[in-house]
Automatic annotation (TrEMBL):
GO terms for molecular function: actin binding; microtubule binding. One of its GO terms (biological process) is regulation of microtubule depolymerization. The gene is Map1s. This is MAP1S protein. It comes from Tyrannus savana (Fork-tailed flycatcher). PANTHER family: MICROTUBULE-ASSOCIATED PROTEIN, MICROTUBULE-ASSOCIATED PROTEIN 1S.
């Protein structure tokens, strides 16, 4: 096979988009692989964004912007829910700055203000139904 320099990506073969109910977006360094093309081809009713760490913060805004760009290319009206599993200043800023665009594209961002108590542990949670 031809030499592929580190950091470059070979063009993915074209094909029909894949439709799923739930897509879990990678965290940390792997989040760099999630771009506009990913969201154009992997069409989900819900995207879970996790990875509450400093590495995720650096790639979170490009990932969120890629969702807007990719969803814009769908050409069909499907409601999408974005589920962040952590609180983030980057997420809050993106939400405020792109709120009108989110509404135009049918994207809802869930905030988790609920707490679940199990045995001796409590944690924030949200319920998603299909």
């Amino acid at each position: 096979p031809p030499f592929n320099p580190a950091g470059s990506r070979a063009a993915a073969p074209q094909g029909p988009p894949v439709y799923v109910d739930l897509a879990y977006l990678p965290g940390s360094w792997s989040a760099r692989t999630v771009d506009e093309e990913f969201f154009r081809r992997v069409r989900s009713l819900c995207y879970v964004v996790s990875g509450d760490d400093h590495l995720k913060e650096g790639v979170l805004r490009p990932l969120l912007d890629a969702l807007l760009s990719g969803k814009h290319q769908w050409g069909i009206d499907i409601q999408v829910t974005l589920i962040p599993t952590f609180d983030s200043l980057v997420m809050h800023e993106w939400y405020q700055e792109t709120h009108d665009r989110q509404q135009e594209l049918g994207i809802t961002v869930l905030g988790s203000n609920s707490t679940v108590a199990m045995q001796d542990e409590t944690f924030p949670a949200c319920k998603v139904e299909f």
